[in-house]
Amino acid sequence: MNTAELYEAYKTKMQKIADLKYASAVLEWDQETYMPAGSAETRSRQIATLNELAHTFLTDETLGNLLKELNAKDDLLPEQKKNAALSIADYERNTKLTPAFVREISESVHKAYHAWVKARKENNGKDFEAPLQKLVDLKKQQAEMFGYTHHPYDALMNEY
């Protein structure tokens, strides 16, 4: 494939990943605005499924090979080169996480959110302790998977 074809293939794959992430964002927005209270578990599962699929697409070896080939090209426009470089860094970072872990952390984030909403409404922080602790433990695990030099938060800094 020539550079233009490679870049087009890259854009197509990245757009599918973006579409999944945007769909997840719409579901997240809905859960915070209009979603019926009894739908929290189902919505958490739906969001986790979309996040897991996006992660699976992002960490696919075919995409990794395409990104390596694209980054080796010297005839990309500057913005194309930057996009490819950022994407390969994202690919390499995300290959350190398993799809199951991505699903678990996604579900935990949304379960913790709903526990927080309930605890705040009832003025009962005890109901939020266990979901929050699980989330903290998963984030520590994620920092270990990513690796860091000085502090675990360094591994997570790009997310925030």
Polypeptide structure, described:
The chain has 160 residues and is mainly alpha-helical. Helices cover 81% and strands 0% of the residues. Helix 1 crosses helix 3 and helix 2 (40-58) runs antiparallel to helix 5 (99-122). It is elongated. The model has no long low-confidence stretch (mean pLDDT 94).
Rg (C-alpha, Å): 18 Å
The description of the largest β-sheet is: none
Structural class: mainly alpha
Proportion of residues in extended strands: under 5%
Helix content: over 70%
How many helices in DSSP terms? Answer: 7
By DSSP, the count of extended strands is 0
How far apart the termini lie comes to 37 Å
The dominant shape is elongated
Mean pLDDT: 94
Order of helices and strands: HHHHHHH
Unreliable sequence segments: none
Short descriptors:
0% strand; 81% helix; mainly alpha; 160 residues; 7 helices
Short description:
The chain has 160 residues and is mainly α.
Secondary-structure blueprint of this entry?
Elements: H1 3-33, H2 40-58, H3 61-72, H4 78-94, H5 99-122, H6 126-146, H7 152-156
Helix pairs in contact: 1-2, 1-3, 2-5, 3-4, 5-6
